[in-house]
Design brief:
Elements lengths: L5 E5 L5 H7 L1 E6 L1 E6 L5 E5 L4 E2 L2 H8 L4 E6 L1
Length: 73
């Protein structure tokens, strides 16, 4: 089954490259990224909605160091 879309919460901008490597283009799933800042602020980015998100990809992203949570949209 294909996940509709995901929101990825990250504490460390260093994890963004690892996330980008795991995102597969070619689908219709939107991906949103929320960066949790040290001062308690959140910065949200929309990465577009052209990704193929499978449960395996979702799990791989959740396992990246610096990723706090992955939620379905």
């Amino acid at each position: 089954s294909v996940v509709q879309g995901i929101q990825v919460f990250v504490r460390d901008a260093k994890s963004l490259e690892s996330i980008a490597k795991r995102l597969q283009p070619g689908g219709r799933a939107p991906v949103r990224l929320t960066l949790l800042m040290d001062n308690g602020r959140e910065v949200e980015f929309g990465l577009g909605s052209k990704f193929a998100i499978t449960p395996q990809i979702r799990g791989a992203i959740k396992a990246i160091a610096g990723v706090v949570d992955v939620q379905d949209l």
